[in-house]
Design a protein that fits this description.
The chain is an alpha/beta fold. The chain contains 17 helices and 18 strands. Strand 16, helix 17 and strand 17 form a beta-alpha-beta unit. The mean pLDDT is 89.
């Protein structure tokens, strides 16, 4: 079976024939959906055996003139020579059916595998080998995103494909940014608005915000590049960069003042068992009190793996850190989940705060969240406090803290 280098050479040759002889070909990007489960459950020896059996299965279903390659992990590429996109759809659906029907047996365990397949045509309109492969990869990701176990054929004006290509480009820029310090940190004050909001020794309270400076030094907001970072497993590296940068500049920025800095954490960090060691190392290296750090995780991340999130929160609280549950209220059965999460703060989602003055339903929801939080001994933070009218209303409801442009705009750290 061809490796990636040989496969790319064959694709380049097919592209050349498309341009010179007007031939049409197709490229299929196949990703086994449950390969990681076999590897994690039974070990890499079992994973290797699965790959061998899948290789034999796929080779039996393609022509001798077609090229099968392993591109890495559980990913395969198939170059279908002199094959229209319509014909390629028939072939790839046949490959999909074979993989779906296949059962992998290892030491009395039986696994269903499944696959997601991306498909792209190669013709005179194709630009380059890199563009062809990245388009097929993006189409494969779209197939996964739509529920797995399916084929997705990329079209010329495919918006999803263009979005995935954009994310791939961002993934490369993020990796370079981490090495070159193109990221920068901003902070936004979180103001105490009730007498019970903070103890006298807590000092000021800020949320740490991430920004990206592009090649023209323009600021790029996180939601432009975070989806790419999540897809390409870069979020834990970004989290570590934020912590390392804040801690490294702590003495210069904070000095002897007592302050709380809230840092957002991704699901990747919560699921990374090495994160605790990294964090302990940073606290020790820079002699920073964990009491000054509040980590924020979103409600969506927390409820995705409730037991893992609870253990994570409790472990960091034992170190002395605080915890806030961000975007609270947007998830299903929020109050039921809240009983299982020992957080210090609740950040009420801005969608409820933005229209609280004019929308009685939002007002009632926020009032309920505030009341239950008070009963549980959890302090509340309102996001998106944009004007005095909102500030007055949330103060009446007994919310402890306010954050938003009506309080203070984000500013560069230091």
């Amino acid at each position: 079976m061809a490796n990636r280098q040989e496969f790319e050479r064959q694709v380049k040759q097919a592209l050349g024939l498309s341009c010179s002889d007007y031939q049409v070909h197709a490229l299929c990007y196949l990703d086994l959906d449950h390969f990681k489960i076999v590897n994690d459950t039974c070990g890499h020896v079992a994973g290797d055996e699965l790959l061998r059996q899948i290789t034999v299965l796929l080779q039996e279903k393609i022509r001798k003139t077609d090229i099968l390659a392993r591109l890495g992990g559980g990913e395969f590429g198939v170059l279908l020579s002199k094959c229209t996109l319509e014909q390629a759809l028939l072939v790839t659906n046949n490959l999909l059916s074979c993989v779906q029907e296949f059962r992998f047996v290892w030491q009395e365990q039986v696994f269903s595998i499944g696959a997601s397949i991306g498909l792209v045509g190669i013709d005179t309109n194709s630009e380059s080998v890199a563009e062809i492969i990245s388009t097929a990869d993006a189409a494969c990701y779209t197939a996964k995103n739509r529920g797995r176990n399916r084929v997705y054929a990329a079209q010329t004006n495919d918006q999803e494909r263009l979005q995935q290509r954009g994310e791939m480009q961002w993934a490369s820029r993020i990796s370079q940014a981490l090495e070159s310090d193109w990221f920068c940190l901003y902070v936004q004050p979180i103001a105490a608005i009730t007498s019970t909001a903070q103890n006298a020794d807590d000092g000021d309270y800020y949320e740490v915000l991430l920004r990206f400076r592009d090649e023209e030094r323009n600021l790029v907001l996180p939601m432009t590049f975070i989806p790419a970072a999540e897809r390409y497993d870069l979020m834990h590296l970004i989290d570590q960069w934020v912590i390392r940068t804040l801690f490294r500049n702590w003495t210069r920025i904070v000095g002897d003042k007592q302050s709380i800095y809230a840092i957002n954490l991704s699901g990747s960090s919560i699921n990374d068992d090495r994160f605790f060691d990294f964090l302990y190392q940073q606290f020790t290296l820079y002699s920073i009190s964990p009491h000054c750090i509040c980590f924020e995780i979103t409600e969506t991340v927390a409820i995705a793996n409730l037991s893992k999130a609870r253990h994570f929160i409790q472990s960091l609280q034992r170190m002395g850190c605080r915890f806030a549950l961000d975007d609270f209220g947007v998830g299903m059965s929020s109050f039921a989940y809240l009983k299982s999460l020992p957080v210090d703060y609740l950040k009420i989602d801005g969608s409820f705060i933005r229209n609280i003055v004019d929308n009685p339903v939002d007002n009632a929801i926020v009032a309920a969240i505030t009341h239950i939080s008070s009963v549980m001994g959890i302090q509340t933070i309102a996001e998106f406090v944009e004007n005095d009218a909102i500030l007055e209303r949330i103060t009446e409801l007994g919310i402890d803290y306010a954050q938003g442009y009506g309080i203070a705009a984000p500013r560069p750290l230091g």
